[in-house]
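@channel sequence for tomorrow's demo:
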Amino acid sequence: MKETPALRRDPNFNWLMGGGVISALGDQFTMIALPWLVLQLTKDPLALGMMVAVMAIPRAILILFGGAVVDRYSPKSVLMLTKHVNTLLLAILAALVLSGTATLLPVALLAIGLSLASAFSIPAGTSMLPRAVPPQHLAAANGAMMAMRQLTMLAGPLLAGLLFALGGDGSNGMQDARGLGIAFAVDCVTYAVSAWTLSKVKPLASSKSDKAPESVLRAVGAGLATVWRNQTLRAAFMYWGLCACVVGGVMQVALPLLASERLHGASALALLMGAHGAGSLAGMALSGVLGKRRVVNLGITLLLVDGLVGLLLLPLGLVTESWQGMLVLVAIGVLGGFVQVAVFTWIQQCVPQAMLGRMMGIFMFVFMGLAPLAAAGAGWLASLFSLDALFAGAGLFLMAAALLAWLFTPMSTLVDASIRKESQV
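structure tokens (generated this afternoon):
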């Protein structure tokens, strides 16, 4: 690919890639350590589910407005600010755990702070690359960043699992939680380093528009109205939100419980998440190899994949060894990675460019807002039913949702944009 050598010589891309990989790798430590810490502090799956909801719901709401804030100000300045905030919050969290003084209230407040910061860092991060890399290199840069980010989802949990096994994961009390504290400290350092690499990036010159910017509320309202008026978009977003509830919400609670009750603690949770990350990477690669090959069309393919994921969720409640769960989660990850690429591509191709930013914001709102609510519900259900029933119920629910969407919604008629255009010629 001709663009690759030039891209590798681009200092802006190298600084962004280096900082992005370092920060994403550190995030994996916190993503495992934080829910595990809450579970060890409370010993209550309902509390874990409520924590996930309290962290993510405000973030989901604010992310609708975060993109507008980034558009009004410099993405670099917003991203830099969030990195400094995260560095400070993680330093405090690491100090509390390492000193053995961590309790639920300060941990919850710090977790909420990290979540709120991400409502601005996510749109700022996605807006940064187009402002730092020439347009002719943007596609290659996006591909490289996505691949490296997915690799961190494989390597990060494995490294975190090793750290928890060697340093302690709090299973025997906070005096045995040194591994968790070090995990937060590692993420703190990665944010500090990535802030330094970001400071080296010099955004490309851009032309300023003389048009008065649209108000934040008006811009968000226009995006929501567009989705609601379009029957296909409305059905697709509602269906994907439902899938996020089942897969995202239940898994955020059920997997830590599975690792805690039946496997080998936080190190087992890291192995499970690492397996899912490896599967997702393979699924994304498979999507590139298969291209536009579909079973009938895009909609039928997506519904079939969702049905298969539901089927794979059924045996997770019967897992008694880490390798068994890893095999299932690799398969789920492959299917999920394939779907992720297909769905994002469909949205990018069927939505007008002028509305694309808001559509992606609404899409992320659906996923980041509904899954936490489901996590709270899953925590409540986990206090009433066994893990076997929780995973089986999630699997059956997802299969039923895919079937009902095929029968009663336009989901089964979705086609890839290029195919739709060819049919209209």
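heads up for whoever presents: The radius of gyration is 21 Å.
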